[in-house]
TrEMBL record:
Name by which UniProt lists this protein: Uncharacterized protein
């Protein structure tokens, strides 16, 4: 027990550091970290896809004109990968969270930044059961002061909400690198480390959560005649520039509004009178169903 199955080193003439490794569905491995051996600056995102015995299938760096750092990579259900870290090349502030969705070959399918005017970074990303992603990190741009926990729930394309100013874009480039695996011969050695008791106690905290980008509530319902037949082509106008919805062939409609929206929804169609003539809403924070006329 304790012997190596295989051991290898990967890198160039600069500093190269791996931060994350995961076994992949093909029994190989995906490895992620930073490199200054390859690329044009101090730190590039570096990803290697390895076989089950450590041979390199592909290797690539990702980044922009400034330093970029990678903290986590996960294989996704479509056999691609999702990556997160932080970037000084793109975004709104000092450092922004960077997320990349890669194909199984390492090509970029989409890329996003998230953050404010100060330093924001991510340490972990995971695919969720609904096909989206969740990111955990910290923010200096938002919160109660100093650095606060930051959690982001993303749609499958990396967006949060169309009205959310937290989401930005990046144009990270992809380059192949030229490292190769080198066999090493480090012998395993027993250590004299002994377990020690600690006196750590759990403590209650008084942290409060703050929503940065709230999900848009959905207002839905149907417009029908007095005989109960759905009325197609009715325009429902939402005040305060929240847009319009048009009923379908069954008279149904569905429309999202800004979180906390207050205003009126007014149906209209030439030659028709509606009851009620409009509906009034105050501070909408959840979906409103059965909003019928």
């Amino acid at each position: 027990a304790g012997f190596f199955e295989w051991q290898r080193i990967y890198g160039g003439f600069g500093d190269d550091v791996a931060y994350f490794i995961q076994e992949t569905n093909d029994e190989g491995y995906i490895v992620a970290g930073d490199t200054d051996s390859f690329g044009s600056k101090e730190s590039e995102l570096w990803i290697l896809k390895l076989t089950s015995i450590g041979n390199i299938e592909w290797e690539r760096i990702y980044g922009g004109s400034d330093n970029d750092y990678l903290n986590c990579i996960q294989e996704t259900s479509d056999e691609g990968y999702v990556v997160t870290g932080n970037t000084y090349s793109f975004g709104a502030g000092d450092s922004d969270i960077l997320a990349l969705k890669l194909s199984s070959a390492g090509d970029i399918e989409w890329q996003r930044t998230y953050g404010g005017s100060e330093e924001d970074a991510a340490y972990y990303i995971q695919e969720t059961s609904d096909g989206g992603y969740v990111i955990a990190g910290y923010t200096d741009s938002f919160g109660a002061g100093g650095s606060d926990f930051l959690l982001l729930k993303l749609f499958s394309d990396g967006d949060i909400d169309p009205s959310c100013e937290l989401v930005g874009s990046s144009v990270a480039t992809v380059q192949d690198t030229s490292t190769f695996a080198v066999y090493t011969s480090i012998p395993p050695q027993p250590t004299g480390t002994q377990p020690q008791s600690t006196e750590i106690f759990s403590q209650e905290t008084s942290a409060a959560s703050n929503l940065l980008c709230e999900a848009r509530p959905i207002i839905s319902g149907a417009v029908k005649t007095e005989g109960g037949i759905g009325l197609e082509g009715v325009t429902i106008t939402f005040s305060a520039e929240e847009g319009t919805a048009t009923t379908d062939s069954d008279g149904g409609y569905s429309h999202s509004v800004s979180y906390g929206w207050s205003g009126t929804a007014t149906p209209s169609k030439t030659g028709h009178i509606f009851s009620p003539a409009s509906k009034t809403y105050t501070s909408v924070t959840s979906d409103q169903t059965d909003q019928d006329y």
